[in-house]
Write a structure and sequence with these properties.
By secondary structure, the chain is α/β, with parallel strands linked by helices. The chain is built from ten helices and 13 strands. α1 packs antiparallel against α2. It is globular.
């Protein structure tokens, strides 16, 4: 756990034991970067999605971003602009959250540097701006695309991560080389969330036509148009908070994202504020709408940050949109796993649910040089690409 965050939690516990819950709440708010009641911070304004434009940033003029310090929780839902409801949390709830240790799986190091691309590949930094907002992003273009791009994947990092670290940990660039995929790694700003989390729990960022989902959909469409990616080959994949945002995109914008991957994430609509976000992460929460895009879900049975029940809830949301016959397969060698697949009438997989025994809050089969990546277990990146292109 980040030392400053841990110190704040210890101080809050001391204030709680000393009979001053108001001071404890203020300490928690400060640690999470949450505006107190009455402070400014408006939700993103709703509005129609209009395509934006991207500009290339000169690599020589853009220095690499410094590594960010690890935060207490990959899906930490702290954000300065959310509705300030935390002061109304019951004292017992605050104590439960403190005792629960929601940061037990902090990484041993900060974000990893960018992976070196092979000769001929492009690994560029860009900036996108549309009517819903703007984000910087990394673009990966394989060294060779003899048959043109086979698809585009929007890669959504988790909290405390950045695009370079996420690319290193997932090794998705290697998969892109093999499969002929364009990869887009958007970067969440610390202005929007102090820990770099996508704001999956914020009502203003749960609609497909406003907030972060609108920005991400417009970004994906802009890059897909530039590279002539077929419209039915635009996908999104994310880890933890990024996985929760991928679920929102698959729920709200299936006409853009034909398939999504939710790794260690939560279903769309699982929370509406900080209190319900913590509750959902700890115990699980049902999705509020069918997940219309084809969906692959991966979750570890030992995930102590985002409960495995959330992966099961994503499965139920996907099954609501894709009924069909279920097949299961498993492997007991190495790190055991079980996959449940739902196919349509033609045999195409519409939903795949992977439960990986002993996996914590980390990308399965990833590169240990990246944060929140576990080299053991099935290769999540390979399975995601296989599912997307099936």
């Amino acid at each position: 756990m980040d030392h400053s965050f841990a110190a704040a939690m210890r101080r809050a516990m001391e204030q709680t034991r000393g009979g001053d819950p108001t001071a404890a709440t203020r300490t928690i708010q400060s640690a999470l970067g949450i505006c107190p009641a009455g402070a400014s911070g408006a939700e993103p304004a709703a509005g129609p999605l209009i395509e934006g434009a991207a500009r290339r940033v000169d690599p020589a003029a853009a220095a690499e971003r410094p590594a960010r310090r690890p935060a207490a929780d990959l899906a930490d839902p702290a954000a300065p602009t959310i509705s300030a409801r935390l002061p109304r949390l019951r004292l017992g709830k605050v104590v439960d959250l403190l005792k629960g240790g929601v940061g037990r799986l902090a990484p041993a190091h900060g974000p990893a540097p960018a992976p070196e691309p092979p000769e001929g590949a492009r690994w560029e930094r860009h900036s996108f701006r549309g009517t819903a907002g703007a984000r910087d992003y990394r673009l990966y273009v394989p060294a060779s695309l003899p048959d043109g791009p086979q698809g585009l994947v929007l890669m959504l990092h988790g909290c405390t991560q950045n695009p370079e670290d996420f690319a290193a940990g997932t090794r998705m660039n290697d998969q892109a080389e093999r499969a002929g995929l364009i990869l887009v790694y958007p970067e969440q700003t610390r202005a929007e969330n102090p820990q770099g989390c996508w704001n999956w729990f914020r009502p203003g960022d749960q609609s497909g036509r406003a907030g972060e989902p609108a920005i991400l959909a417009a970004l994906a469409l802009d890059v897909a148009e530039r590279f002539e990616v077929p419209r039915d080959r635009i996908f999104a994949a994310g880890l933890s908070a990024g996985g929760a945002m991928a679920a929102i995109l698959g729920t709200e914008r299936p006409e853009v994202f034909s398939a999504v991957a939710v790794h260690s994430g939560l279903p769309a609509g699982a929370a509406t504020d900080v209190a319900t976000a913590f509750a959902a992460m700890r115990s699980g929460a049902a999705g509020r709408k069918p997940l219309k895009a084809r969906t692959i879900i991966l979750h570890g049975t030992a995930d102590a940050t985002v409960a495995r029940a959330n992966g099961e809830a994503v499965l139920e949301a996907a099954k609501a949109a894709h009924p069909g016959r279920e097949d299961t397969r498993s492997d007991l060698t190495g790190r055991p796993w079980r996959e449940t697949v739902i196919r349509d009438g033609g045999g195409r997989p519409m939903v795949a649910h992977w439960q990986v025994e002993g996996l914590g809050h980390a990308w399965s089969g990833g590169d240990a040089r990246g944060s929140y990546a576990d080299p053991k277990g099935p290769d999540a990146s390979a399975e995601i690409v296989r599912f997307f292109l099936s």
